[in-house]
Amino acid sequence: MADNDSLAEKLVQDAQSPDVQSTQSAPQDVHAKNLQLILDIPLRVTVELGRAKMAVSELLNLGQGSVVELSKLAGEPMEVFVNDKLIARGEAVVVNEKFGVRLTDIISKKERVEQLK
What we know:
It is a single chain. The protein is α+β, with helices and mostly antiparallel strands. The chain has two domains: 1-41, no CATH class; 43-117, Surface presentation of antigens (SPOA) (Roll). Helices cover 33% and strands 25% of the residues. A four-stranded antiparallel beta sheet has the order 1-2-3-4. It is elongated and about 60 Å long. The N and C termini lie close together (10 Å). The model is unreliable at 19-25 (pLDDT under 50).
């Protein structure tokens, strides 16, 4: 797992480096090819509306039409996670009769890289 973390950090650093050529034999297009290798990797994106805690007895009593009260207030930003790592916050929107999320706050690149460790 540490190797994957190191690779992820290296790729992020390469992607953030402004036109840096590491050696004469590795021109910038090599960095672009390295980045190209990971662009098709599928990621799990999750938007969390809220959370709730309940006892097993409450869970067993749930039925159609039951309402589960969540920890967040209406109108509070929802959290957007990629592979269980917080990357943004946003608000619910409807697009073509489907729910979506409009990003209102993106976690800084430094904070996102820190979460990879």
